[in-house]
Amino acid sequence: MDKEKIEEFRQILIERRGAILAEAEKTVSGLTDGKENFPDPTDRATVEWDRNFTLRIRDRERKLLKKIDEALGRIENGVFGICDDCGEEIGEARLKARPVTTQCIDCQTAAEAREKARGV
Ligand SMILES: [Zn+2]
After folding, report:
1. Nearest residue to 31 via CA among 63, 16, 53
2. CA dist list (Å): 26 to 49, 74, 101
3. Which of 8, 53, 66 is nearest to 27 (CA)?
C-alpha cells in the first residue's frame, strides 16, 4: 500500500480514537452527575440498568481503543494492512470498513469456521 493511503488510514484511526475518547468522557460525567439519588425504587432500577449498560459499552470502547492503538502501531512498524495469518495484503475495501482488522477476509472466514466447528 502506498504512503498516501496509509496516511489516510492513520487519519481515520486517529479520528475514531478521538470520537471514542470524547464519548467515553461524556459517559463518565453522566455517571457522576448525581442522578442516582432517586427515592423511587423503580427509577433506581432503571438507573442501575443504565449503568450496567454504560459499563458494558465502555468495556467495548476500551477494547476498540486498544485495537485502534495496535493498528496505529502497525502503521508505525510498516506492517499495516498485512494479514497476521498469511502475510498477504488485506483488501482495501475491507480495511476501509474495518481499519483495525488484522486478518484478510479468507483467514477470518477460516477462523470463524474453526470457531463454529468448536462450538464457540
Ligand atoms: Zn490472511
Report:
1. 53
2. 18, 29, 27
3. 53
Cα 116 to ligand 1 centre (Å):
18
pTM: predicted TM-score of the whole model, two decimal places: 0.74
- In the chain, which ranges are continuous DSSP H helix? 3-31, 41-76, 92-97, 105-118
C-alpha cell at 90: 488485506
Q: Which residues of the chain have pLDDT under 70?
A: 28, 30-41, 120
Compute the Cα dihedral for 94, 8, 71, 90 and give only its sign.
Answer: positive
Distance from the alpha carbon of residue 63 to the mean position of ligand 1, in angstroms? 22
10-23 pLDDT, tens digit per residue, is 999 999 999 998 88
